[in-house]
Amino acid sequence: MPSIFWSGKLTLPMKVLVEANNILAFLTGSASDVRGMKTRVKQGYEGKFTDHVSQYDELGYHLQEKSARYQLDGLQLADMNVLDVGCGTGALTHVAFENGARSAVCGDISAFMLRLAQQKAFFAKHHQDYCQLDAENLPIKDNAFDSTISGMTFGTLPDQKRALAEMIRVTKPGGLICIGAHGPEHYWEAIDASFRCINKRFILGYRLEWWPRDERYLRVLMESQDLADTQVKRVIWHNDFGSGAAAYDFFAAISASWWYAKFPPHERVKDSKKTRDYFEAKNIRVITDDIVVAYGYKK
Ligand SMILES: C[S@@+](CC[C@H](N)C(=O)[O-])C[C@H]1O[C@@H](n2cnc3c(N)ncnc32)[C@H](O)[C@@H]1O
Questions:
Q1: Where are the alpha helices (DSSP H) in 102-236?
Q2: What is the pLDDT of residues 17-57, one digit of tens each?
Q3: Which CATH number is 218's domain given?
Q4: What global pTM score does this model have?
Q5: pLDDT for position 124
Q6: Is residue 5 assigned to a domain?
Q7: Three-state DSSP class for 150?
Q8: Best label site of 133, 152, 213, 274, fewest CB within 10 Å?
């Protein structure tokens, strides 16, 4: 079962509110419904609750690509066959090809995200395949890839230890395993503001699906596995979107608004508008990016 506590940064009033709700989720059994949580994230990234995610590339791809560049900076991928777990629309795979990868498989739980990746002209020029998969249970044989990478997906995975073990299993001995995980401050201003606005009636007793992790956690996680030369680093920067409305639009698109799973459709629209107006009124235009990069080599 995932932790019942919230591992990301929040202001104190929101922290108290969220932790109280998470304890309620624990008592009602919702916190242990891992399958339900994963389905909600998947459906969010398939655009089931709002159409925000259809603007993922237009509003957020450049920042995903920036994260991907930090993540793979200085790592050798020349001539490798790479698996990208939670590929989304392909930012990390794109950078892997730029860093010399020979071929890649883009894997994601969302068929919609895979379709967006597939439409990219850049990938048509490369040896590239696509696979719908769950990071915690990869449908891939042992030792299949030279390198397995994952960018900005770990925060949405309830069992990160299992996901890492799966990445190692499908990588050849000597191969690189590299994770770009959501750090505890990732998007915290936007998450905090969204909690202030959200209609609490529809999330009461549900543990929200978000498990960012700090460097210490990632270091312990990597060291619990049979890896050589493990390294962990953290990169933080702040994005100014110019207006609260623009910051909200970015956040809604990139996070796919999966927390609307329990809302009736007309309430989602109402809630989204109220939240966007709040971002604008409070001038919440700066959002933090916080990435913890961890890598090592399979023995
Ligand atoms: C924030 S996006 C990051 C995508 C991409 N790596 C990027 O940097 O743009 C998170 C992605 O993780 C995928 N995802 C969430 N849970 C997953 C799971 N259990 N298995 C595989 N992919 C998952 C989502 O569908 C989404 O495409």
A1: 111-118, 121-124, 160-169, 188-197, 215-223
A2: 999 999 999 999 988 999 999 999 999 999 999 999 999 99
A3: 3.40.50.150
A4: 0.96
A5: 78
A6: no
A7: strand
A8: 274
